[in-house]
């Protein structure tokens, strides 16, 4: 566990247990609710000081209690406020009932809410705890708000989102800003939840870290705190072979560019030596484009096995531009005792017999990194890809356990999962990474880190994060070639 609270994630259920533990430790639970509601009111006034009306929509639980506190605080600050409730407020319990009693404003049923221009919505209906389709009255309110394009500030999580998976449960508000408490939830980071939360503010309401730490699972936010201590560092005795040798397999003469992108990325990531293993027919094409990267003719499995006699050839990238024929499977299986990043065509080549890949890498230390996007994930794990009840984290972890591999489940919400149950959600990748060759660069970065001896899970996590940072430095109009030049350790 790292000490950076910004990297911690708690599921809604875990956060609920932390709330109960805080109250059980003697902390005033209503005081926590007061701090939460006041933080929401402060955010609303900061972001929309000229709001014509703050429409506070309060639900039947503690999220609604936060809303009643926020409504009272807004009114006390002189803002125009209208309160609407879902369900019968007389049935509120505990702190939510106390908050409702303390809110002297009159309230109307949610069904009577009429959206009007100038409204700022405070969504305090459900928050992160919802696990069922929203009722019709909430769906109607969402439709009305969307229809006028009204700004929404969500309390904890936009109502209608599953805080565990980020899925929309029938309908969900699209917030411009979300105020959550103590830690983020997976639903803030997983798609489509990430797109519906707007900017996310994490407010510390005073629950001790020791209580939160007791509820932490094996899922966190990716960042240097997770892997910095094992990131390879140079020393005075360093030479190129001690920095590791990465081999990247090239495709045929008409498809060599992807391998060269991976190779150059591996070199920038710190590998001491990088070789492009090329079919003889593509040697001239590759030679014309390579300088610091070496070139080796490898046409057959026999050629590869001879190459593997040198134990310094320890890390490999296979897949970018390689083709999906039997040769891809043969080469991957020949590498069963080496560290391998299997990407793109290398993944697709096993779509009809994924078990042969999994069996080859099943024993010993984790040596295999799979980097599928959504479609490729479905080719290797069709049953997991269609499991609508599982979150992206659940699917990645199940795939990782089955394959005995680190799985980099790519997307705008990339998840890195290991067979030991650890998972990370990456958050620093800009939209500009959706460009040709970007995935080839990522495979090369991870391969370069593996070549230097970095542990497999940490190499994958660091590679994903460094890839995102490079894209941010490269700017909105990046190309894959430019992306490589911005890789920094």
TrEMBL record:
Catalysis performed (reactions): (6S)-NADHX + ADP = AMP + phosphate + NADH + H(+); (6S)-NADPHX + ADP = AMP + phosphate + NADPH + H(+); (6R)-NADPHX = (6S)-NADPHX; (6R)-NADHX = (6S)-NADHX
Molecular function terms from GO: ADP-dependent NAD(P)H-hydrate dehydratase activity; ATP binding; metal ion binding; NAD(P)HX epimerase activity
Pfam families recorded: Carb_kinase, YjeF_N
Positions with a binding annotation for AMP: 410-414, 439
Residues annotated as domain YjeF N-terminal: 15-213
Note accompanying the cofactor annotation: Binds 1 potassium ion per subunit.
Binding site for K(+): 63, 123, 159
Subunit structure: Homotetramer.
NCBIfam families tied to this protein: yjeF_cterm, yjeF_nterm
Functional description taken from the UniProt entry: Bifunctional enzyme that catalyzes the epimerization of the S- and R-forms of NAD(P)HX and the dehydration of the S-form of NAD(P)HX at the expense of ADP, which is converted to AMP. This allows the repair of both epimers of NAD(P)HX, a damaged form of NAD(P)H that is a result of enzymatic or heat-dependent hydration. Catalyzes the dehydration of the S-form of NAD(P)HX at the expense of ADP, which is converted to AMP. Together with NAD(P)HX epimerase, which catalyzes the epimerization of the S- and R-forms, the enzyme allows the repair of both epimers of NAD(P)HX, a damaged form of NAD(P)H that is a result of enzymatic or heat-dependent hydration.
Annotated protein name in UniProt: Bifunctional NAD(P)H-hydrate repair enzyme
Organism: Ciceribacter naphthalenivorans
Lineage: Bacteria, Pseudomonadati, Pseudomonadota, Alphaproteobacteria, Hyphomicrobiales
